[in-house]
Amino acid sequence: MTTSQRDITDLERQVQAASRPFRHLVDQIQRVMVGQDELIEGLLCSLLMNGHVLIEGVPGLAKTTAVSCLAKGINTGFRRIQFTPDLLPADLIGTLIYRPNTGEFTVKHGPIFSNIILADEINRAPAKVQSALLEAMQERQVTIGDTTYQLPQPFIVLATQNPIEQEGTYPLPEAQVDRFAMKLVVGYPTIKQERQILDRMATTKSNLTVDAVMSPEDILAARALVDQIFMDDRIKDYVVDLVTSTRDPSRHKVPILGLVQFGCSPRATISLTMAAKAKAFLDGRGYVVPQDIKDVAHAVLRHRIGLSYEAEAEEKTQDDVVQSLLDHVPVP
């Protein structure tokens, strides 16, 4: 056994032990949630890769419930912020308050000063609020007055939006959308799952609870292991080929020419790499395989692809484009 193989084997033992609490966390969430496995796995990946998530789905599909259960399963700070058109930046990050008795200003921190932030219906917030949130997401800090304050760690924004109701909404600017490491699309449950939901939830009082099985220290320690997960150079090249093919589809003869107005930024390359490592961690592996890339590609790339009018005319979606990439870019 070579030194590198021995290192990977040792790392895998550590990963298997460190990923066990995350499986316990999934069990806790599934005490309340029915189905939505991709959503739950995506949320855990986001925690491990230190990335924010945009969750899209019609009302009633348990988007808010999933985030709430995740927060309850971790012994950490959690704040839910309901975004509305009259929300002000100060309502989010805090403000300076004048104290007449002392003649001084004191800082009142806003709800953004927590670990897990649920930004409910984020596209209902006006541009100034979204701009204030952008600094928090990108820099993990906020500025109140002349002073900059660091946000607690871990810090992650889990934002929801409704794709069908557009009245009174403010579409997220591309710069902000690109800051989300992943976009998770929540679909309807199957018939069997819907029946399970009925049996579990059709009551005036729910006794379903989620116990805290992890701490913030567990997450930070797991992130250190995720950074060490081995990724072969050929898989790194595969990631780069997937992302750059959104800008130059002719390179690998991907049949999306004319369908994409603008391709993915280098942030997509970073997020795809980190999401694949997080997926490998959750599976208890110390190395990334090509299937990890494929499993997270839709969530990482879909919101970073700008479709052309031609694509809309042909009723093509971002997921169609991502699937074409996965079908045509050679797998190592």
Salient structural properties:
332 residues; alpha/beta; five-stranded parallel β-sheet; two-stranded antiparallel ribbon; 16% strand
What's the structural blueprint in terms of helices and strands?
Elements: H1 3-29, H2 37-49, E1 52-56, H3 63-72, E2 78-82, H4 89-93, E3 94-99, E4 104-109, E5 116-120, H5 127-139, E6 141-144, E7 147-150, E8 156-161, H6 174-177, E9 180-185, H7 191-201, H8 216-228, H9 233-244, E10 260-262, H10 266-282, H11 290-301, E11 306-307, H12 309-313, H13 318-328
Parallel strand pairs: 1-8, 1-9, 2-5, 5-8
Antiparallel strand pairs: 3-4, 6-7, 10-11
Helix pairs in contact: 1-8, 2-10, 8-10, 9-10, 10-11, 11-13
Characterization of the model:
It is built from 13 helices and eleven strands. With 332 residues, the protein is an alpha/beta fold. The strands form four sheets. Strands 2-5-8-1-9 form a five-stranded parallel beta sheet. The protein has a two-stranded antiparallel ribbon with strand order 3-4. It has a two-stranded antiparallel ribbon with strand order 6-7. The relative contact order is 0.16. The mean pLDDT is 87.
